[in-house]
Fold this protein.
Amino acid sequence: MTDALSNEDDLLRRRKRVSAMFGVLCAGATALCLLILIGLLATVAVNAFDAFLPEQTRAELEGKSTLEGLGARTSAFFSAPYWQRGWTFLVEGPSWRPEKAGVNPAIFGSLWLIGLTALFSVPAGVGAAVYLEEYAAASRWKQLVQLNIANLAGVPSIVYGILGLGIFVRAVTLQAPGGDYLVGLSLGRVILSGALTLSLVVLPIVILASQEALRAVPRSIRQASYALGATKWQTTWRQVLPAALPGMMTGVILAISRALGEAAPLVAVGAVGFINYTPTSPYSRFTALPLQIFNWAADPKPEFHSLASAAILVLLAVLIMMNAAAVWVRYHYGQRIRW
Amino acid sequence: RPAPEGGSDAATGSKSGSISIDGSSTVYPVSMAVAEEFSDQGTDAEVTVGFSGTGGGMKQFAAGEIDICDASRGMKPAEAEKCKENGVEFIELSVAYDGLAVVVNPDNDWCDELTVDQLKQMWKPEDPAQKWSDINPDWPEEDLVLYGPGTDSGTFDYFTEEIVGEAKASRSDYAPSEDDNMLVTGVAGDKNALGYFGFAYYIENKDKLKLLGVDGGDGPVKPSMETVMDNTYKPLARPLYIYVNTASLKRPEVAKFVKFYMDQAAKLSKDVGYVPVPDDVAAENAATLEAALGAAPAKAPAAE
Amino acid sequence: MSSPAITNEPAREASLHSGGAARTRALYEGVIQWVLWVCAGVSVLTTLGIVLVLMVESLQFFREVSLVEFLTSTQWSPTFRDKHYGILPLFCGTLLVTGGAILIAAPIGLGTAIYLSEYASPGVRETVKPLLEVLAGIPSVVYGVVAVTTISPIIKTWFGAQSIYNAASASIVVGFMILPMIVSLSEDVLRSVPRALREAAFALGATKFDVTVKVIVPAALSGIVASVLLAVSRAIGETMAVTLAAGAQPNLTLNPLESVQTMTAYIVQISSGDAPSGSPEYKAIFAVGMTLFITTMTLNVLAQWIIRRMREQYE
Amino acid sequence: MSIKTLPAEQRNTGLKPPRVAQSRASRSADELAASAPKISVSSLNFYYGSSQALYDINLTVPEHCVTAFIGPSGCGKSTFLRCMNRMNDMIEGTRLEGDILLDSHDINAARVDVVSLRKRVGMVFQKSNPFPKSILENVVYGPRVAGERSKNRLMEIAEQCLERAALWHEVKDRLNDSALALSGGQQQRLCIARALATDPEVLLMDEPASALDPASTSRIEDLIFELKDRYTIVIVTHNMQQAARVSDQTAFFFQGELVEAGRTNELFTNPSKKQTEDYITGRFG
Amino acid sequence: MSIKTLPAEQRNTGLKPPRVAQSRASRSADELAASAPKISVSSLNFYYGSSQALYDINLTVPEHCVTAFIGPSGCGKSTFLRCMNRMNDMIEGTRLEGDILLDSHDINAARVDVVSLRKRVGMVFQKSNPFPKSILENVVYGPRVAGERSKNRLMEIAEQCLERAALWHEVKDRLNDSALALSGGQQQRLCIARALATDPEVLLMDEPASALDPASTSRIEDLIFELKDRYTIVIVTHNMQQAARVSDQTAFFFQGELVEAGRTNELFTNPSKKQTEDYITGRFG
Ligand SMILES: Nc1ncnc2c1ncn2[C@@H]1O[C@H](COP(=O)(O)OP(=O)(O)OP(=O)(O)O)[C@@H](O)[C@H]1O
Ligand SMILES: Nc1ncnc2c1ncn2[C@@H]1O[C@H](COP(=O)(O)OP(=O)(O)OP(=O)(O)O)[C@@H](O)[C@H]1O
Ligand SMILES: [Mg+2]
Ligand SMILES: [Mg+2]
Ligand SMILES: O=P([O-])([O-])[O-]
């Protein structure tokens, strides 16, 4: 028998090499992901940097290479005008003058949208997932619903936009034998319509992620609860849902991210580009950050391209703040449960 | 059936103290600039400007959901029909011209101008030129790499109409993009490339592109504010329009806004990179508007 | 020994099914079940709505264009004068972009998920995962621009792509975009595999590779497949990045270096473009949408069948 | 090895003489016969999918008695136990034939409320399955879902039940720690405490002492004795001495069949079936 | 209740007289002393986060002997066992001080490869943990990851190990069924078979017979006896008779401390510490 723990046969050495290589590959994949992220963020940040440069610095930079301009940029960065412009960017509305344009209505529009979207889609999504995983008996019907949901995830968001236009913004008249029926909410081109439409877009993500999280809860936990005289709902509410919470949070995070970055369906349900007031209720007309970004990015003027990058940073900041809460929940609960 | 759509009309479009504009993304910058200046004048009206495309805007306009529709082309008969069906009456005002620039890579040292016919050879659907040398034997025998806007844009329609002679008649083996900045990137990155897009995109990327003169029969002319305005840059300058619902026009804030639009259009369209309409067109606009405003109050009861 | 736990109990229910308490409880549970059922019903209603919208309009489309042409013609040019309505080029475009994106994102995403769940320390995991989720929130126009300005030139010089718009660069950026979906969801399911299973495998002298590949991943398979499916769906549904990166030229090709148009890109192009509603090219978006819907449905049926066959349920 | 011959009894009586002397009396034959049947099972067949796990079981579980199930591993004890509170409902593809009456009500009838049933018929599982929550949360879960709100009352219940399950002094300082950080035996006792807290009429215990040391085992056995005046208890055990010590009635299962059931004393001293005899004397397999 | 006084020994010897007569000889004191130390532990302290679970443990596990760990529930037996193949590495926040030498190599040294270590030091867990795969897959998992490809060889190993774990005849017709559809005791035996299949030098068994009926228990004990000529075995058990029957050396743990370790015969007949005596005679707690 072998005497030293490090003395090993060839096969074992090979297996360990495979394992080590596998670890390196996985770590490499992670590094690659991070690299992509950093690359993207850096690109955006660098582009955004020029957004707030004062007129005169801009003029100075004309025709200089990046390196030459570094000094001027740095000094501009540490001067008050740069930050004043940064502030006006946050509190002003859109403008055709790049030095004046801001994202205030877009920020509020987006906040309203994702707030309401989360409000609609999370309970509905988790509810549907609970129904499918805990309540519905295995049946054709369940299979059908399941298939349905997986399918919905693949429907392009613009189609939801068309649907939202039909049933939330307007209403469709259905001709039936007993008379004509008006199907839809006729809400008009308002935030609420947008949020409802986005809710439909992200619902499959919430449902599917929640289902997986529920499935991962060991059956013995449910058995233990039932055996203690808990009802189905008590078992679900007190044991299964808390245990599945971290996984569900992932779904919620991804859903919010998606809702925040989505533009196409919003255009369809009537989001606008310019709005001269800050939306104050779900019944306001609205614009949203991604729309602003798209529009600026497509503008001929390069100054607007920097503004688009700055708006992306704002969007990411909003996203990160929204995610922080969810991440905290996931971390907090994820820590405690190690089956 | 218009009934439900009319219902939403009440919810948004006709709300007192609000003006809603939607439609062409090409006209959007002008309308937005006007709206912004208008707001800065101190008004309570809530103004919104969207950019869901000329087609999308027309759909809403015909349904009476918006007050003003931006358009990068004239209204189509089918759309006019829809308006009529829904009892939407309107006036058409042309607010600016968009010169289409034909550009090549700055490294292209053989080509400085093209005739309409040569352009047609390049872009026609049947048997188009494949090499630069197919156009002019003196030019290099290099692939002709073409860039153009998305095939569902007003620019595409206009270009094909003027160059090939029929809207949407175009070769299809070119690289289309929905974002004109991408076209700039494309032409700027390929020596053998040629592309066309809005003049404003050329202005902002002068150093990366080479502008070609177009010979519409009276010798080659390069697009510029002047050549477009005095109508010497032919035929690639297209008019941009706004359509105003006459029923909306009876609302004071809309009337005020449209008047303001006409006053400011010249200055602001220039600022955002388009060309102001010539004086005679401006006068025509004024007359149309005047007539509509005069008629509006009388028409009002009928429209409701 | 008297027990307070017992003496304070209310009178026991006489039989198993009578008694007010049980009835109230059953009612309460019933209401909850009903509410949950409604939640699940929302998705069904949505589908119904979508199918209805797509059906009604595509029926009109097919009144003008024959189904045979739609399915067999190799040209898609509704926005040109010479109109052809062959879905194949768009279908191929979607296939190319989505397939490529998955080929890129699935291995990288899974590798990352495995690294985070099996190798990384909790600190690393809890930092990296939310960071990567930021990728999901970057609006797709950014990806589109990056594709055209950064990735395309590389592909052009290395692989000799003709156009700066090509399916490959679209695949790559869409791949990046769906990474967080695969990483986050897979990592969750990997980590919820009970520790006892890991211990069992390690105690048998398995290497981390053996444990991961032969125990953890199979046990988490259904969740992993679900995450990949969700990512595929996102890739299929993604539009803006694709329109910018792949161009908007419907080519019947499986060469990733060529420019293509996807089904969704066409839908966006038309629905935010110039075409007046009622024109055949406008109605075509519904036929395309229908095709897309049927395609994803087929894919999903297939995937569910696979999951059912391969699933390992712990406990 | 002297320990080998140290009889189990001796150890136990040595432990707590007074208690044992008072309560360690199993029911007499008369008492057993007089006991009302709490659960009666007739012609029970049970299937996992296509494979049958129980064959035509007929058994009466008398009230206020301890019934022990013994038999070789895999013979169907757990399966049978799980039938009695319909836990097998949760396993897909199972099928049950025959009747199980609790206080003469069929528990498998359509309109039976399983929640009430399981409240009345508690269970301790073979593999301990604590919730991934704190120790305290685990114990008070039953009362809590039954509607108990008062913090004091819950604490009281927790202390009492943990005390009875012989776990209190080990965990009293760490009630808020995760139950998953307990040792195997501690988890098992926690699960017993948790079941006690719901105060069921019938308590099904699947090898409640399998992971326990003799002292804890003995405490659990004492508990069973203590409880049987008020509860009806069914216990699965592999330890025949334990069956002999705690139960009034013993049922011997073999390959899915109930070979023999009867008063514990009789079954052990005078089994009527050859199989039983072989099993209890170890001349088996 | 006559059974109560039926000594466990008697049952067992009754079962398979020839085998027992041959092999059921525990090592003599001399033999034990002569055995090379397979594992030596010195000054071991172990912490779960801030709470210490093991205090200054010093113990030698002699080669080709069976060492039994006994002690009340929660005293640290499993924790100690898990230290010996570094299973505790997997629990976050644990910390170990002191040395554990396997064949005089420190297993906690930086360059030690845990895979090789665990291959050499196999383990059967307290709570059975079969993979959610088929029975066959479970058993052959170890050999398979170790590189064994041949189907025949794997089948052979599976049969042999299942046979030894006394499970073969129960599962031979359903080798491709899920291991999770086995009864509790069957799962436990499956886990034993699975551990045997990797053919380790040291086998750590945490209550391998807790869910087993006497017959299976006895088969497992036979197995342990049979194995000890080739392996070194450490077994945690709550059953003192079992410890006495199978082990050569016994270690008694109490509240995280190793109170006493020594030749099994001696420890049981003549414990040197009061605590040990109290525990083994049941005068404890
Ligand atoms: N993961 C853990 N985290 C924190 N404390 C733990 C953990 N596992 C065990 N403990 C504690 O460490 C002590 C020793 O536990 P261990 O599992 O070693 O006991 P044991 O002797 O095996 O008991 P048993 O016979 O009940 O299995 C116990 O007090 C237990 O509560
Ligand atoms: N979920 C299941 N699916 C299919 N067969 C099962 C399932 N659970 C148990 N069985 C089988 O049914 C039979 C009876 O199992 P059961 O768990 O009732 O045994 P048991 O008497 O409790 O044994 P043990 O003492 O080992 O726990 C066994 O052959 C077992 O393999
Ligand atoms: Mg069992
Ligand atoms: Mg233990
Ligand atoms: O948005 P357009 O209609 O001008 O292309």
The longest strand of chain A covers residues 171-176.
